[in-house]
Amino acid sequence: MKSSVPLLDRITRYIVKRKGKQMRPLFVFLAAEISGGVNDSTYRGASLVELLHTATLVHDDVVDDSNERRGFFSINALWKNKISVLIGDYLLSRGLLLSLDNNDFELLKIVSNAVKEMSEGELLQIEKARRLDIEEDIYYEIIRKKTASLIASCCACGAFSAGNDPEVSNRMKEFGEKVGMAFQIKDDLFDYQKANKTGKPSGLDIRDKKMTLPLIFLINNSSSSEKRKIKNIIKNHNTDPNKVSGLIREVTESGGIDYARKKMIEYRDQAIEILNTFPDSPARRSMAELVVFTTDREK
Asked: Which residues, 6 or more positions from 45, have their beta carbon under 8 angstroms from its beta carbon?
């Protein structure tokens, strides 16, 4: 990440010191170990994934006007939007060059396709948030694109780096997609859980007019008049804490939380089923534990 531009070095040091769980590179390494063994291209694949993922997070904070990321100030909060966009572009370019300089064309193709799908998923979500007309099948399509596609690409990259076998890579990609679906549903459930400091659900997704699975379940099981009332709160009263808390209570009482948890477990079990088609090994058992972590994590 070293650069001749001091400002760039300062910002990249800030990013590296505040890195997250780095779960996505873990998927790359474990998928490679399961599929034949880690090698130099596996490390480049993991680096590519982390660079592109970090770039999308920097850009997301600009789009969402977010001042916080992982409990610290976001890049745009400290250095403003223009620099943040350029930093995101720089991270993207470093990932591209890393692959091109080492002729990792297939890895680049896998991850670039995921970034394309992530952009499509975000835009589809924004479009649907404006009209509040999202159905359950559209919700699954959104999270498949915006979250599951990147985890799927991690697993596909790892598998391909280990043996250049498209069949194994595709099977691992399907596994990663199922994990990603479960991962995002778990993320959506956090919005309905009690926040550590206040003891109240955050309701951030409702504020941002994001139609998550628990909320979709409530709407689908409400009368026409109740649907209009719910959509009115989301559209016009999404910053009123009392109305948002009341809506969250309705979601819980309707069985929306339980329904979402059930779907999350279904995706997790489908992922484990695919994983079990690979030979037993310490790496496969570690991967199974990582899958369980995605649905049992507390943050």
From this structure: 28, 32, 104, 107, 111, 157, 158, 160, 161
